[in-house]
Write a structure and sequence with these properties.
- The complex is a heterodimer of chains A (about 325) and B (about 400).
- Chain A is mainly α and about 325 residues long.
- Chain A is built from 13 helices and no strands.
- Chain B has a two-stranded antiparallel ribbon.
- Chain B is mostly helical and about 400 residues long.
- In chain B, helix 1 (about 5-35) packs across helix 19 (about 360-380).
- Classes of the chains: A mainly alpha (about 325), B mainly alpha (about 400).
């Protein structure tokens, strides 16, 4: 490894390091490693974890034997009668919705965050502006859910107390029930996600942007490069590693996202996402086998990013 | 001012417009929540928060239907003085008011040849008359919603009025003990604190030890162990819930604070150790060399040297863990549930099942945001530093 030249400053026995590590390792094995293994095992069992999942098979119905919970988790929301039906059922399933979240929330947060980081750098009230954009990060998803449910409020009476519908009616339109109109509602939820997470992307990207040496930028500008060229040809390549880190972090965050959907729609009106579905299977339907199968699918989706994380760590270590 | 300077200023206008527009979009939702939570019940549920400074409810239909005879202050007709509480007391609601308007006065229709106000307008006029005559004191801002949310009041008026005039609200005692009502946000606040503080200190402590070992000690498998740790950071919470739930059921830990503390400690560990190692590892080597020459042991170096020096780093980590636990819903929902509700649980319950009015919901949400907001604005520097040190966990 790269950092092994940490000096043997102080002598210590073989056991001492493990004494420092022991408490942490014990809680981690108990609360992360053991449950992970157990979850995988449970995903091959029936609804209360007492028998194998293959006992769930019934004559004359499709069954994947021991993978029965996975069959349910993967196909229950889908309609295989025709290609068109398959697509439409996929896009309103928890998988399709999670995909929408990933695409729109990640691109939304990163692009707005980057734009804001660059523009705020040029104004005098930068600190204040960034603090305001960042503030939602301190608020809970539940709090943010209430804030935006209030914004989206749909009054059945004449009066609209939700700001969005008030603007629409003031402009002469009809009020919209934002959170129960499919497929608009998922996008309205994604907007809330963007509102929360843009501050994070902006802060990290802003730090990277500020680390771009001024001399290079000045040199390019003196040579007559436009701001547009400077941004895409000089700044972008330099901050690209940070952008990748931000994007992967955001994808992981989106995959785990639960609270927002739970509070705002409860996964109803076709807004379900993978993380909320897992909760529903376990705490509403009391089906441990199916719930853990969904959890394992979630982890499988995250694994490529774990790999990425470790590789980034190794790269960092070799630079130290 | 020369031409270049003017051009420069003009050229910056688009930047300012975009930045300011973004700030406004970002702050308006929170501002709306704050204003709505400070308005009286009737106002919050019947008009948009942005109307907080516009004319009081009912003044428009009053001017349209009544003011021509009664005058804008209601005193023009001495035989029907609308500013007299005794008169208005007889017509408190739109039903009585409309009945009166339909009746003839001295053989003439009350409204002359004018059309009657619609039921909605009549209701608004009734509200306006109550405030005009002083039978109902109206203010633009009130803290009543916060009091109601804190004590868990669910009646039709508000806690203060019910306690002053009776009947006593259901399940409440009208004294300080109400703050501990299990349905209220006061109790939830205490529960949240009681969950959060140990769940912040415990992982910090364990992570400091482990981080020290990872950065300044030698042992076999150090690198491999740390790489595994980096991988464990992204394991989703959902993956660990069911087995822990079953384990806790065996030990009777479901619904206990101890269970939640342990869970947050275990789950926060990989990220905390990762940050700790980055921070502690960046301390200068000379420190340890001179400590060694002075005959210090690892233990002395750890708690007399490393911990004090790493305080700023520990502060950023503490803020992170604190906010993470305070804002968490899933763990609280699964392990604590309704037996010891924390703030996030209480609010999500109000949203999903109880259908509490917006006046309560906005106040409750803002109460839960107070502490994180304070932490954020007071300690922003540490917060951002922690975030830059190693992306965000979750």
């Amino acid at each position: 490894m790269a950092t092994q030249d940490i000096p043997r400053i102080m002598k210590h026995g073989r056991v001492t390091p493990w004494l420092y590590l022991l408490p942490a390792l014990v809680v981690m094995s108990l609360f992360i490693v053991y449950p992970m293994i157990n979850t995988i095992a449970l995903s091959f069992s029936n609804s209360d974890g007492t028998a194998s999942a293959s006992t769930l098979c019934r004559e004359g119905r499709a069954c994947w034997g021991i993978f029965e919970n996975y069959r349910y988790a993967l196909t229950a929301e889908l309609n295989f009668s025709s290609v068109g039906a398959f697509w439409s059922s996929f896009w309103s399933s928890s998988y399709g919705n999670t995909l929408k979240w990933i695409i729109f929330m990640v691109s939304g947060t990163v692009s707005i965050g980057l734009l804001f980081a660059v523009l705020a750098d040029r104004v005098k009230y930068e600190a204040l502006a960034k603090a305001i954009l960042f503030m939602p990060m301190a608020i809970s998803f539940v709090g943010a859910g209430v804030i935006w449910k209030f914004m989206y409020d749909y009054g059945t009476q004449q009066v609209q107390i939700g700001l969005l519908n008030a603007i629409i009616t003031a402009l002469g339109g009809d009020p919209v029930s934002w959170l129960s109109t499919v497929p608009l509602n998922t996008f309205m939820l994604i907007i809330v996600g963007i509102w929360i997470w843009t501050g994070f992307c902006m802060t990290v990207l802003s730090a990277a942007y500020k680390s771009v040496p001024d001399e290079i930028l000045e040199a390019a500008r003196v040579d007559g490069a436009s701001e547009w060229t400077v941004f895409w040809r000089i700044i972008m390549p330099i901050i690209l590693p940070t952008v990748t880190v931000v994007v992967t972090t955001m994808v992981i965050n989106v995959l785990k996202l639960f609270d927002l959907v739970y509070v705002m729609t409860g996964g109803n009106f076709k807004t379900d996402v993978i993380a909320n579905r897992m909760y529903t299977e376990i705490n509403t339907n009391y089906n441990v086998g199916r719930g853990t199968a969904v959890a394992v699918i979630l982890v499988l989706a995250i694994i490529p990013f774990v790999y990425f994380n470790i590789r980034r760590f190794l790269a960092q270590e070799s630079m130290r | 001012m020369n031409r270049d300077r003017i051009n420069q200023i003009l050229g910056r206008i688009p930047t300012h417009v975009v930045v300011i527009a973004t700030i406004v979009i970002w702050i308006v939702p929170t501002l709306g929540l704050l204003i709505a939570s400070l308005r009286p019940v009737q106002d919050t549920n019947s008009s948009g928060w942005w109307k907080v400074f516009s004319a009081p409810r009912g003044s428009e239909p009053y001017v349209q239907h009544c003011a021509s005879c009664h005058g804008s202050d209601g005193r023009t007709l001495s035989q029907a003085d609308l500013s007299d509480a005794a008169v208005i007391g007889k017509y408190p609601r739109s039903l009585q008011l409309l009945a009166l308007l339909r009746k003839d006065i001295n053989g003439q229709p009350h409204m002359g040849d004018q059309p009657l106000p619609t039921p909605q307008e009549a209701a608004d006029i009734a509200v306006y008359l109550r405030s005009l005559s002083g039978t109902e004191r109206t203010t633009r801002f009130t803290l009543d919603n916060y009091i109601d949310a804190l004590v868990g009041y669910r009646g039709l008026r508000n806690y203060r009025v019910d306690c002053a005039e009776g009947p006593r609200p259901v399940g409440l005692n009208c004294n300080l003990s109400d703050l501990l009502n299990p349905r209220g946000m006061g109790r939830a606040f205490v529960n949240s604190l009681w969950v959060t503080i140990p769940a912040t200190i415990l992982p910090l402590l364990l992570a400091a030890f482990a981080g020290y070992a990872f950065s300044w000690m030698h042992f076999k498998g150090r690198f491999l162990l740390f790489a595994i740790l980096v991988g464990l950071q992204v394991v989703p919470l959902q993956m660990t819930l069911v087995p822990i739930l079953r384990l806790y059921a065996q030990f009777g830990l479901n619904g206990t604070f101890l269970g939640v503390w342990l869970f947050h400690t275990g789950f926060g560990m990989p990220y905390a150790i990762y940050l700790m190692r980055n921070f502690l590892g960046s301390l200068p080597r000379d420190l340890f060399e001179s400590a060694y020459l002075d005959g210090a042991s690892h233990w002395t170096a750890f708690y007399q040297l490393v911990i004090p020096l790493a305080m700023p780093a520990i502060a950023s980590l503490a803020i992170f863990q604190f906010l993470w636990v305070w804002n968490d819903l899933l763990v609280a929902l699964v392990f604590l549930g309704g037996t010891t509700p924390v703030m996030t649980y209480q609010i999500s319950n109000m949203v999903t099942s109880l259908g509490a009015g917006w006046h309560l919901l906005t106040a409750a949400a803002f109460l839960s945001m107070l502490l994180p907001m304070f932490v954020f604005f007071a300690l922003q520097r540490y917060f951002i530093r922690g975030m830059l040190a190693g992306a965000v966990k979750g």
